[in-house]
Amino acid sequence: MVSDSKPRYHAFMKTPQNTQSRDFARISDAIHYLVTHREEQPELADVADAAGLAPHHFQRLFTRWAGVSPKKFLQYMTLRDAKQRLAGSASVLDAALDSGLSGPGRLHDLFVTINAATPGDFKARGADLRFRYGLHPSPFGECMVTITDRGVAGVSFAGDKDPAQ
After folding, report:
1. Helix, strand, coil percentages, rounded to 5, for the chain
2. Tell me: the pLDDT tens digits for 74-94?
3. How far apart are CA 23 and CA 51, in angstroms?
4. 153 strand-pairing partners
5. pTM of the entire structure?
6. CA angle in degrees (0–180, nearest 5) for 29-35-39
7. Alpha helices by DSSP H, 9-69
8. Which letter does DSSP use for residue 2 in this model?
9. Domain boundaries defined on the chain
10. Which CATH number applies to 13-114?
11. Checking DSSP bridges between strand 143-148 and strand 132-136, what pairing results, if any?
């Protein structure tokens, strides 16, 4: 019997199995690092270093595994944290600073970019916003797109449910 020293490949992937496992562990550790250090707003180089990779390689690997860039993932985590603080009656200033941002302007930009609403709109539970929505076919099934005058505020999928619900 001849021993093959090359790593075995998954039938559906072009990367050796041991590399897949190592990459999964690195990205899992990086996500944990981002979650636990989100208030520090770490730079790409810091997260890449924690994962033991060069920043450029880490950026590509993280995006391939997580589906978003490390920066976008950190933005989503920061926004989620700020929303929890605002829902708990924090001021916009306090929510911004306690979430690791430099001020309310950065929080405003983050809200508008991701949710097409301001932190004040969120705090007021959209009282003065006009939402419009429509149901549209997509490759993933029926989806509902919700917009405000600032842009797309949300996308959701009906799945197996009746879209009217």
Report:
1. 50, 10, 35
2. 898 889 999 999 988 888 999
3. 9
4. none
5. 0.69
6. 135
7. 17-36, 44-51, 55-66
8. P
9. 13-114, 130-165
10. 1.10.10.60
11. antiparallel
